[in-house]
Write a structure and sequence with these properties.
Blueprint (H helix, E strand, L loop, with lengths): L1 E3 L2 H13 L4 E6 L5 H13 L2 E6 L9 H6 L4 H10 L4 E3 L3 H4 L18 H4 L3 H16 L3 E5 L3 H16 L6 H6 L1 E5 L19 H6 L2 H12 L5 H13 L1 H4 L8 E10 L15 E9 L2 E8 L2
Parallel strand pairs: 1-4, 2-3, 2-5, 3-4, 5-6
Antiparallel strand pairs: 7-8, 8-9
Length: 300
């Protein structure tokens, strides 16, 4: 595996691969890799000749300075994992290498960015789009792989591709037209907790409590067979907010739900009746001991 730290080196590697007609799979990450990331790499390896994994904590997608500072960074461990799991290239740039000039791009994602994470994290999705577009332009992948835990992010990237495909004068327009976005299922720990780099920040006690988020979502799916949408939404919020009291858990381990929405899996707009959408998912964000945990589950 090659560890590449500069754009010039990366461009040379991609150019050589293109000359050999190799297909390229891109797995964008912010590092602190876990089995969820590795599942994306394995899928990319199955479908492409060359797998490029970026390891870059993107500062412009953080609207919380403390969250950026606390985000786990384990570059050496990450590179060892990448090599042992079949990645061909680890792209590990500095911030200056990724953004040699100030970036002021502003994207209009429409309604998919106006719900759930959008109001809670102003500017977040614009920052995600900027770094993803930068990676697309550098790597020119045939396929790009993203985990469904960040379900709204996938919708944002789909919209980004629509925007890029409309820019007919873009030098990489053919790449954007042909680029396949590959969503991959959530990977969970044995106790159900969705794997996330942020889980490393949980104390042992908090980690033991955290799986109850997914357990609550599973019960919500069962309830949906006989309860309406609003009742299920309210039950999930109430259950998590009162969890520490009902189960005699210390106050410092209480769940603080930020939102729980039941939405159309394509438009991401909230539904009021189960029959309002062909595909329905529930998306949730919960704070636990200062760590922001995201999860989702499919209802229909």
């Amino acid at each position: 595996m090659k560890v590449i730290k500069t754009v010039a080196e990366l461009r040379a590697e991609i150019s050589a691969a293109k000359q050999q007609n190799k297909t390229i799979g891109l797995v964008p990450t912010m590092g602190a890799l876990h089995e969820g990331h590795l599942s994306l790499i394995h899928k990319a390896k199955e479908q492409n000749d060359l797998v490029v994994v970026s390891v870059f904590v993107n500062p412009i997608q953080f609207n919380n300075k403390e969250d950026l500072e606390k985000y786990p960074r384990k570059v050496e461990d990450d590179c060892a994992l990448l090599e042992s799991n079949g990645a061909d290239v680890a792209f590990v740039p500095s911030v200056d290498e990724m953004y040699p000039e100030p970036v002021n791009d502003v994207y209009d994602f429409g309604p998919v960015a106006e719900v759930m994470e959008g109001p809670q994290r102003p500017g977040h999705f614009n920052g995600v789009a900027i770094v993803v577009r930068r990676l697309f332009d550098l790597v020119e992948p045939n396929r790009a792989y993203f985990g469904e835990k960040d379900f709204q992010q996938i919708a944002i990237i789909r919209r980004l591709l629509e925007i890029m495909r409309s820019e007919t004068c873009h030098p990489n327009i053919e790449m954007y037209r042909n680029l396949e976005l590959v969503p991959c299922p959530i990977v969970r720990a044995e106790d159900g907790l969705a794997l996330s780099s942020r889980n490393a920040r949980l104390s042992k006690e908090a980690r033991n409590v955290a799986p109850n988020i997914y357990a609550t979502l599973q019960q919500a799916v069962e309830m949906s067979e006989c309860e309406d949408v609003e009742d299920v939404k309210q039950w999930v919020m109430d259950t998590l907010e009162s969890f520490h009291e009902v189960n005699d858990i210390p106050e410092e381990l209480r769940f603080e739900p930020e939102y729980f929405e039941i939405v159309d899996d394509t438009t991401l707009q909230p539904i009021s009746r189960w029959e309002d959408a062909k595909g329905v998912v529930g998306c949730i964000t919960v704070w636990l001991t200062g760590v922001r945990l995201i999860d989702m589950i499919r209802f229909r």
